[in-house]
Every structure is written in C-alpha cells, then in structure tokens.
UniProtKB/TrEMBL annotation:
Gene Ontology molecular function, alphabetical: prenyltransferase activity
Subcellular compartments: Membrane
Name listed for the protein in its UniProt record: Uncharacterized protein
Main subcellular localisation: membrane
GO cellular component, one term: membrane
InterPro entries named in the record: UbiA_prenyltransferase, UBIAD1
Membrane-topology annotation of the record: Multi-pass membrane protein
Transmembrane segment boundaries: 41-64, 120-145, 166-186
C-alpha cells in the first residue's frame, strides 16, 4: 500500500472515530474535547469527509483490481476474514479494523461480496471477450467456495476456519489459470 493510500485510510478511520465519539459522547466535557466541537464542524461535513475518503480508497482498490486481476478480491477477503476472526482481540486492543468500525454484520456481508465478486468478474470477462470462453468453467468452483464461506461465517475462528479464505483463493485462481490456458491453446 502506498503512502498516500495509507494516509487516506488513516484519515478516514480518524474521521470515523472522532465523529462516532462526538455522537456517542455521554457528557459535555467529552463532546467539547472533540475536534468536531472545537472546530465547529457540522456533522454533515464530517460524514461527507468520511464518505469522500472512503470513495477514494475504494476507487483506488478497484483500480488496482482492474490493473492487475479481479482475484485481488479474494486477497481482500482473506484480510477481512483475518480481521473478523480477530474481532474480539482487536476490540480489546483498541484497533480500528473494519469489523470494529462498521460492525461485524456489515463486515461479514462485505466478506460475502469479496468472495463472490470474482465470479461476476469472470462472467463479465468472458462476455466482453477479455478471457477465453473456457474460463467460464471456473464457475464450477463456486460450490466449494460457498461451502468454505459458510463454514467460516458460521464460526469465524483463526485456528479452525480462517484457512478456508486462503483455500478459496487457491481453488479459484488455480482453476482460472488452467481454464484460461486451455482456452488460449484452443483459441477460444
């Protein structure tokens, strides 16, 4: 991750922390110590700032996927699975991971998205003729990936189920490589 991306993500998380702290403050002293109160920043401006930074960060990640490979979603899924599995420990240690900032339910929903999105990309790449038609055979891995995703979500444990997210990456990428290679050999 480049320095500017780290800066954007760091500022976004800081903005979220300050905004949530301001909204949930129990007393006036805590509220008055908030940068939002001290700088007279309206809440709509704070939320706009967060949304803009989040949009920039997401656009950067999507651009990276476009420039490299849509399988980067699986890498993001593995990182998110790690954060979901570490949720309780991260909360105790005050870490601002996605499951803590946005909640475990939203993080799990996003995990589903990250694990299933490559299949949409595969379909689109075949339809748009970016990939050989044989690549569509990669969709045959979906039942295994779904089983692994469901297994992890049912019990997000670092020791027992985290490796399913890594396994998903290997299953799909290996299958995609083989099917693309066959497609290129057969010229379709």
């Amino acid at each position: 991750m480049e320095d500017r991306e780290k800066l954007i993500l760091n500022n976004m998380i800081t903005g979220i922390n300050h905004t949530i702290d301001y909204i949930t403050a129990k007393d006036e002293k805590t509220k008055s110590n908030s940068p939002i109160e001290a700088e007279h920043i309206p809440l709509w401006v704070a939320w706009t700032y967060i949304v803009v930074l989040m949009t920039i960060a997401c656009a950067g990640r999507l651009w990276l996927c476009f420039r490299t490979n849509w399988m980067m979603f699986f890498i993001g899924g593995a990182i998110l699975a790690n954060n979901i599995a570490d949720h309780d420990r991260d909360k105790i240690n005050g870490r601002a991971t996605m499951p803590i900032v946005f909640g475990i339910k939203k993080a799990v929903n996003f995990y589903y998205f990250l694990e299933y999105m490559p299949y949409v990309a595969i379909i689109l790449s075949v339809i748009l003729r970016f990939a050989p038609i044989c690549t569509i055979l990669t969709l045959g891995t979906f039942p295994w990936v779904k089983k692994n995703v469901d297994k992890f979500v049912a019990n997000p444990d670092k020791q027992k189920t985290f490796m399913t997210s890594i396994f998903n990456f290997h299953i799909v990428v290996a299958t995609e490589i083989v099917t693309m290679f066959i497609g290129f050999l057969l010229h379709f």
